[in-house]
Amino acid sequence: MRAGHRGRGGFAATVALVVLLAGCGSTAPSATVRPRPAGPRTSYVAVGGGDAVGNGTDDPLLDAWPQQFFRRSLPLSAVFVNAAVPGATVAAAAVDQAPLVASSDATIVTVWLVSADLLEGTPASTYGAQLLQLLTSLRHGGTTTVLVGDVPPLDELPGYPACLRGTAGAARGLRCPAPLPDPATLTTASAAYDQVIAADAARTGAIPVDLAGAVAAYAAGGGPPFLDPSGADLSIAGGAVVARAFGTALATAGRHTA
């Protein structure tokens, strides 16, 4: 399911029923409906891979990190559409997910797409060019707020530990290349990815999200594991870390729309 909500539909239907009954002479008490805030409504779309879908969590509709970001950082009147596709690369997202962003009239978009490209060995130059094209299209001439995450520490990169241990879940969209890039190669590639992500964010006006710093700080604190037991996906706690990092970046940038 791609649409997300906080049960607003059920609440609205209940209020509407009370008002209708009151208007028909019922003895039901009258209800006061809070007016919708003035100004444009926040429409949030998540662009990403399996972590954004909520793979690895017991209840993806509640625990996927975009759902947590939606609940914690956006107004109650906001609507949410999850465009994420497990295993998505940046190139695939430009074809499969970007059109949904456009059709949803998104005002806020989150982008976190690093694992699949890194593991598949996409060169940083190619990744950077594709990401620049994607961010440019999502920014919609500067009218859409876009947040883009960087690369977390390698041992906390969703999918990599699973591929190392041979516990990858193909059914969840995770693809492990053969041979798997060695840690030194991936560390070098990660640094190059971080550079192009920062450069592309600056060129397009997207908001960079320091996931590398947030995840490293969390791991050093000794909390619950950032990844699920398989090492393929985020845990619920890991999703909360990512959601908070995106929320902090949005608030810091002062683009929290009501």
What percentage of residues falls in helices of 4 or more residues? 40-55%
The class by helix and strand makeup works out as alpha/beta
- Beta-strand percentage? 5-15%
CATH class of the largest domain: Alpha Beta
**Arrangement of strands in the largest sheet:** 1-3-2-4-5-6
Average residue pLDDT: 84
Count of distinct structural domains? 2
User: How many DSSP-defined strands?
Assistant: 6
Largest sheet: 6 strands, mixed
Based on the coordinates given, report the CATH architecture of the largest domain.
Answer: 3-Layer(aba) Sandwich
CATH fold assignment of the largest domain: Rossmann fold
Give the topology string: H per helix, E per strand: EHEHHHEHHEHHEHHEHH
Q: What does the radius of gyration come to?
A: 20 Å
Treating each run of at least 4 consecutive H or I residues as one helix, how many helices? 12
Basic shape: globular
Give the helix/strand layout:
Blueprint: E1 3-4, H1 8-23, E2 43-48, H2 50-53, H3 60-63, H4 65-73, E3 79-82, H5 90-96, H6 98-103, E4 108-112, H7 115-120, H8 124-139, E5 145-149, H9 160-165, H10 183-204, E6 207-209, H11 211-220, H12 236-253
Parallel strand pairs: 2-3, 2-4, 4-5, 5-6
Antiparallel strand pairs: 1-3
Helix pairs in contact: 4-12, 5-8, 8-10, 11-12
What's the short version?
This protein is of the alpha/beta class. The chain contains twelve helices and six strands. It has two domains: 29 residues; 213 residues, SGNH hydrolase (Rossmann fold, 3-Layer(aba) Sandwich), CATH 3.40.50.
